[in-house]
Amino acid sequence: MEAQKACDKGALKPKRNRVTRVLLMIAGTISLAFAIIGIILPLIPTTPLLLLTAACYCRSSERLYSWLINNKWFGEYIRNYREGKGIPLKTKIFALAILWVTINISTLFLVPILIVQVVLLVVAVAVSIHILRLPTYRRNPEHAKTL
């Protein structure tokens, strides 16, 4: 029920039509699969896909939405992002490191076409700017002591 309250704050209400709900569950699950792939492949945007998953689940299944928001890998990340708290510095550093290692390997060894190399570098710069502009989440030191 707590998850549904958080969902309602975002003005996304569950659909009543069964077909629509099933399609939203399928779309959310596909989005989640791509988000998980995006953790490994930095050109796939993990955060927007996780947010899309949350929106789809919110409108289709309280159970799936609750699972996602309370998931030990994604839950806190999604909640902090949606609340405008940002992402942890460790996550930013990891994302940027993986992004640039992958882009450099791709442009130097795997992609022989100059225009594709340029596009990859432009995408990497754009993603880097986006990540750096996100607020950096800092856990409250008092909260950390109680954990």
Please give a structural write-up.
The chain is built from eight helices and two strands, in the order αααααβααβα. It is an all-alpha fold. It folds into two domains: about 1-85, no CATH class; about 85-145. The longest helix has 23 residues, at about 20-40. The mean pLDDT is about 80.
Short summary:
The protein has 147 residues and is an all-alpha fold. The chain has eight helices and two strands, in the order αααααβααβα.
Mean pLDDT: 82
Strand content: under 5%
Strand order of the largest sheet: 1-2
As a whole number of angstroms, the C-alpha radius of gyration is 18 Å
Low-confidence stretches: none
Q: What's the number of domains?
A: 2
Order of helices and strands: HHHHHEHHEH
Overall geometry: globular
Total helix count? 8
Give the N-terminus to C-terminus distance in angstroms: 24 Å
Using DSSP, what is the number of strands? 2
* Helix coverage percent: over 70%
Instruction: Classify the secondary structure makeup into a structural class.
Output: mainly alpha
- Major sheet size, sense and barrel closure: 2 strands, parallel
